[in-house]
Design goal:
There is one protein chain. This protein is of the alpha+beta class. Among the domains are: 62 residues, no CATH class; 241 residues, Transposase Inhibitor Protein From Tn5, Chain A, domain 1; 79 residues. It has an eight-stranded mixed beta sheet with strand order 7-6-5-8-9-14-11-10, sandwiched between helices. A three-stranded antiparallel beta sheet has the order 1-2-3. Strands 4-15-16 form a three-stranded antiparallel beta sheet. Strand 2 and strand 3 form a beta hairpin. Helix 2 packs across helix 4 and helix 2 packs across helix 19. The two termini are 43 Å apart.
């Protein structure tokens, strides 16, 4: 027996074509070698689902009543870890981490978890048990000791992994520009036992806390390649020399140009680079050096910027180097505004000291000097004031020549580089130096936006280095995910090429439209990177149980993906998997 669908077409007297569909319950049998059909009933009046049910039953299928015969025994988030794991496999990250085994599975799970939900190692083991990550990678039973053993294993393999990444992204084949970016940051440390913790210049604004420092080496696009951890009181130039040793000794790269800020690549470090040979540099001059070039007889004169915002100059103090002078009008205006506000705030503070002296509450010259020193420590404006301090007397006035001299250099900075003109013209030198902003974005991703590297809670040197390296590998994953998912987020996919390399960067019209409408070009909701991961988490994997079967027999079923979830997996060229492996 079966259900036959019969379609009859006919034309009415008025010439209109019509179609009549009937569903007939039939019995098919052989009679004398011939196949015959017997109609048992006309099922056409029944609802469509009822006809489908009859057809399925006759085909030998078992029908289940939702909520009675079929139940969801468990539903866990799946889409976010599946997407991040899929991107990791596309980047061959498991093979990069090391040979297959329990420790590699744990290390990979830690990297994926750091991208999806950064937390302490103990909190991570609690969290991943409520997703598909732990069970699919076989680490659901891992305890804290095993997790820390995996972190130590990862730290021991850091050199090999970074060398492989350098081969991918810094060697000539993957880095035709032959440049690398380097910068230093810091994060505060909790506790008192970490041997790397020391007091130093805090880039987190956490005064009074010990800290560690770490230098991040990236390719020209800002893709993380290597990270080094230093004691918290390490000076920038010292960290830079360590980066040079890494590039030369560990990675075997000698024809590379390193890009760093003015505090990182100092004149002394440039002398050392010259002695080593092979490595070039792009950096900027400090303010006193710029002021010396702008002296009356110097090559840096404001007339250079009458027609353009950049000009190439030379000076005998910088033999074999090119100097590119730039003037950014927007930066000049911002610095002038900030100076005006600081001068006014300083005068307000100094007026309070004058009033205290005149009222007789402040008489001792030393006490007056200490009060003035506190004001200078707060505003850093004493260089622009003339002070007269005596017992029972205090007066001040603005140093107008000093203010004028600084104002003349507002918005002006000078880059120095060893790049020859056939490799980069003046505009390309400026663009290369400004690409350091990509490392700053990496630091924001590492420290606050995506990965929560800080604060440092580990107290052994090996664990601290392993933790920072783990976060760097997660940042490597995030860099590729952000790039791939740019069409779904507020990221500018096609930033316009600036006609003036000195001018501030602008967003494209498409990015402005995406931000204004909150929609992508595909008319999907535009989201931040974090919100997109949260949305992917709603793609759950469900354990289904059929009534009448043993309770331990279930099958897995994915929720129906949304258009955004479909698009997210398409962009990373990964099908939506039922299981991670």
């Amino acid at each position: 027996m079966h259900v036959a669908k019969v379609t009859n077409r006919y034309r009415t007297k008025s010439g209109e074509d019509r179609e009549y569909v009937s569903h007939l319950l039939r019995r098919t049998f052989r009679d004398g070698g011939k196949v015959k059909h017997e109609t048992l009933a006309n099922l056409s009046p029944l609802p469509g689902p009822a006809i489908d049910a009859v057809r399925a039953c006759l085909a030998g299928k078992e029908l289940l009543v939702a909520g009675e015969d079929l139940t969801v025994t468990r539903s866990v988030p799946h889409g976010h870890v599946a997407a991040v794991h899929g991107q990791a496999r596309a980047l061959r990250l498991p093979e990069l981490l090391g040979p297959p085994g329990r420790l590699r599975d744990l290390a990979l799970a830690l990297v994926v978890a750091r991208v999806v939900r950064p937390a302490s190692k103990l909190a991570t083991t609690r969290w991943w048990a409520d997703t598909t990550l732990a069970v699919d990678l076989g680490v659901a039973d891992a305890g804290t000791d095993e997790v820390y053993a995996a972190l130590d294993w990862l730290a021991d393999r850091q050199g090999e992994i970074e060398a492989a990444l350098a081969g991918r992204h810094l060697a000539a084949a993957g880095n035709p520009a032959r440049t690398a970016l380097y910068d230093l940051s810091s994060s505060w440390v909790t506790g008192r036992c970490c041997p790397l913790a020391a007091h130093g210049y805090s880039r987190d604004g956490k005064k009074g806390y010990p800290q560690i420092e770490y230098g991040l080496l990236t390719d020209p696009a800002g893709r993380p390649v290597a990270v080094q951890v230093f004691p918290g009181n390490t000076a920038d130039p010292t960290a830079f020399i360590a980066a040079v040793d890494t590039v030369r000794e560990r990675f075997g790269l000698t024809d590379l140009t390193l890009v760093g800020d003015r505090g990182m690549i100092t004149s002394a470090r440039i002398v050392a680079l010259r002695e080593l040979g092979g490595l070039g540099w792009v950096t900027a001059l400090r303010a006193p050096a710029v002021a010396a070039l702008a002296a009356d007889t110097g090559p840096l004169q404001l007339s250079l910027f009458d027609q353009a915002d950049l000009a190439e100059i030379s000076h005998p103090d910088y033999p074999g180097e090119r100097l590119v002078a730039c003037r950014n009008p927007a930066l000049a205006e911002e610095r002038a505004r900030k100076r005006r506000e600081l001068l006014a705030a300083t005068e307000t503070d100094l007026d309070k000291i004058v009033a205290a002296v005149q009222a007789g509450r402040l008489v001792d010259a030393g006490a007056i000097g200490r009060r003035v020193g506190r004001v200078d420590g707060k505003r850093k404006m004493a260089k622009h004031f003339l002070l007269a301090i005596a017992p029972g007397s205090f007066a001040y006035s603005r140093d107008e020549p000093s203010i004028a001299a600084e104002t003349a250099l507002d918005g002006i900075y000078v880059l120095r580089t060893s790049l020859p003109t056939d490799r980069a013209d003046a505009a390309q030198v400026v663009a290369t130096y400004k690409s350091l902003a990509r490392v700053e974005r990496d630091f924001r991703s590492l420290k606050t936006i995506d990965l929560d590297l800080r604060p440092i809670r580990h107290y052994t040197e090996r664990r601290v280095r392993g933790h920072v390296f783990l976060c760097m590998l997660a940042a490597y994953l995030v860099w590729h995910l952000r790039t791939a998912w740019a069409p779904l987020t507020f990221t500018d996919q096609t930033p316009p090429t600036p006609t003036d390399p000195v001018a501030p960067a602008r967003r494209s019209a498409a990015a402005e439209r995406k931000a204004a409408t909150q929609q992508t070009d595909d008319e999907l909701p535009a989201r931040s990177f974090g919100d997109l991961l949260s949305h992917l988490a709603t793609l759950s994997r469900n354990d289904m149980h059929v009534a009448g079967t043993p309770h331990d027999q279930t099958f897995q079923l994915l929720a129906v993906p949304t258009p955004t979830q479909h698009r997210a997996f398409d962009l990373i060229h990964t099908p939506i998997p039922l299981q991670l492996r």
